[in-house]
Amino acid sequence: MSNTKYTAALEKYEKHLDDIGSQEMIINMGPQHPSTHGVLRLQLITDGEIVKEVIPHLGYLHRCFDKHAESMNYGKTIPFTDRLDYLSSMNNSHAFVMGVERMLGIADKIPKRIEYIRVLVCELNRIASHLIGIGTYGIDIGAFTPFMWCFRDREHIMNMLEWASGSRMLYNYIWVGGLFYDLPVGFEERCSEFVTYFKPKLIELDELLTNNQIFISRTANIGILPADVAINYGVSGPMLRASGIKWDLRRIDAYSVYPEIEFEIPVGKGEMGSVGDCWDRYKIRVDEVKESVKIIEQCLARLTKDFARTNEFDPRALVPKKINLKAQDYYVRAENPKGELGFYFVTQEKSDIPKRVKARGPSFNNLSVLPELGKGTLIADLIAILGSMDIVLGEVDR
């Protein structure tokens, strides 16, 4: 943006604030408020307790992923994808790696054992991400115990992924053409034990939070997002599905081994209020955790029977020593826990460094609909609406 355009936009914004009514107030919410989960400041124009306008202000992290990707080769960029939505690092790496493999023409040659391991760790990461979303949403509303329960169960997943990759949150486990390493011996058994332990915990969570009357009264019929508005704003993931649209890239694009796996795509039904309200957005994540458990069970069955480990198996056999691509533009997308994560590549002839990489993070598009949802709500309800979006600022301010 040129300085002239920036100055004009700033003047327009300042004039807008100067023109507010005498009964209206400007209130700053965040960046330390718990519901922001990071660094986001909301500027509210209020009339009493009614929010008349929400103006999100971003820009405290400056991760600079897009620029980093232009200065190093494809393999070295993978650790930076982990830092976009740092709660779902495996899923980020999977999307980026799929794009490079497709451009190289080796996507169909990846061994099935590698693909099933990738889906297994990605679904474990999806559960971990949703547990954070569910737990922190509970605490946004005032329910502390579910927050502790979710973090307790997430810890088991964190330990397993750390065991496999050697890192606690930023894994760098999925590589172009393969994996950093095969699963540790005993991983499948430990993962099965986790599934057995975790299933009853989901029932307890439902009893404590999902059907809690106080929680329902704070979330049902609040922040209703109609399907057409969701589409117009580019909303994706659980937020879009909560509005009643059955759109999941694992099914739509049928990437990796997802076509070989049976699972349902939950959509919002307005069970407690209206389709697309805060309760629906919460419930979609709970249902998706249950579906991820089914996927993990199927992956474990294939990894222990059809594609069991052997001494000859080399997870790095297809990892290229140097990535040389032809000049092209290519877009790849994947269904991340928060929605569609896409990478747009502009590659250079015979170069292992991309000319341009643009990341399309789901949290950014999902957050863009907040001014629409927040208009006319109570200030207290705005917390419930923002929390139901489950954003991570790492992929909003890149």
Outline the secondary-structure elements.
Elements: H1 3-18, E1 24-29, E2 41-47, E3 50-57, H2 65-69, H3 74-81, H4 89-104, H5 112-141, H6 145-165, E4 174-175, E5 178-179, H7 187-210, H8 213-219, H9 227-232, H10 238-242, H11 249-252, H12 278-304, E6 329-336, E7 339-346, E8 356-360, H13 362-367, H14 370-374, H15 379-389
Antiparallel strand pairs: 1-2, 2-3, 4-5, 6-7, 7-8
Helix pairs in contact: 3-4, 4-5, 5-6, 5-12, 5-15, 6-7, 7-12, 12-15
Quick description:
The chain has helices spanning 3-18, 65-69, 74-81, 89-104, 112-141, 145-165, 187-210, 213-219, 227-232, 238-242, 249-252, 278-304, 362-367, 370-374, 379-389, and strands spanning 24-29, 41-47, 50-57, 174-175, 178-179, 329-336, 339-346, 356-360. The chain has 398 residues and is mainly alpha-helical.
> Which percent range fits the helix content?
40-55%
Please give the order of strands in the largest beta sheet.
Answer: 1-2-3
Instruction: Let me know the number of strands.
Output: 8
Overall mean pLDDT score?
Answer: 93
Shape: globular
Poorly predicted sequence stretches spanning 5 or more consecutive residues: none
Largest sheet: 3 strands, antiparallel
N/C terminus separation: 17 Å
